[in-house]
Design a protein that fits this description.
This protein is mainly alpha-helical and about 210 residues long. The chain folds into 2 domains: about 30 residues; about 150 residues, no CATH class. It is built from 8 helices and no strands. It starts with a helix and ends with a helix.
Length: about 210
């Protein structure tokens, strides 16, 4: 009887662990695959390289630098098991307020006609201050009331988006000073992103 039970018992699966690629390497391989797909698409459709194009590479690097700066800030929230839905809207509000203080006196429809041709550091400091204030409000609401970060930052997202539209009356802020626009041109955004990334890497590691 016991022999029959032992013979009918199913064999156990091997307990050896399967080797898996590191997460970073898997993501890197996926990115390479996506790049190859777009490269093949470029040669088929336009008979030219899609990625190995100097103008397109410069544009992508500039865009990645801007998004990277935003990602560095959001990373600090995520690693503390939080979430911030308002980062994009706060960025828009900060940019609008900063740009309104960087307009030239040649523009007749400046947001603040009496505050044109200001030194470039003033709109930068004010823009950073707006972002800092929004973050402080989010943090205070979460810490004092115990509201989940999802709800608190959702409210800030809607509020900042509405304030940005109300502040500019739905119109673009244009005619900025050359010294201010130079910050977002050339290699400057990349340099700023790399410096900030290194600073936060050191802060998080040590």
């Amino acid at each position: 009887m016991s022999n029959a039970i032992l013979q009918n018992k199913p064999a156990l699966a091997p307990t050896g662990k399967k080797r898996r690629l590191p997460t970073e390497l898997s993501i890197f391989l996926v990115l390479i695959g996506i790049g190859l797909i777009f490269e093949l698409f470029g040669w088929i459709v336009r008979d030219q390289s899609f990625l190995l194009n100097s103008q397109r590479l410069v544009l992508m690097i500039l865009q990645v630098s801007i998004i990277g700066l935003l990602a560095i800030g959001v990373t600090q929230v995520i690693i503390t098991t939080g979430i911030d839905l308002s980062s994009g809207s706060v960025l828009a509000l900060s940019a609008m307020i900063a740009a309104s203080l960087a307009q030239t006196s040649d523009f007749s429809r400046a947001v603040f006609p009496s505050l044109t041709d200001l030194p470039v550091w003033i709109p930068i400091v004010v823009g950073l201050g707006v972002g800092l204030l929004a973050g402080a409000i989010n943090g205070s609401i979460i810490a004092i009331t115990g509201i989940p970060p999802f709800i608190a930052t959702l409210g800030m997202m809607v509020s900042a988006r509405g304030l940005a539209r109300f502040y500019t009356e739905g119109q673009p802020v244009s005619m900025l000073s050359d010294s201010y626009t130079a910050i977002g041109q050339g290699a400057m955004p990349v340099i700023i992103f790399l410096v900030v990334a290194v600073i936060f890497h050191i802060a998080l590691r040590y």
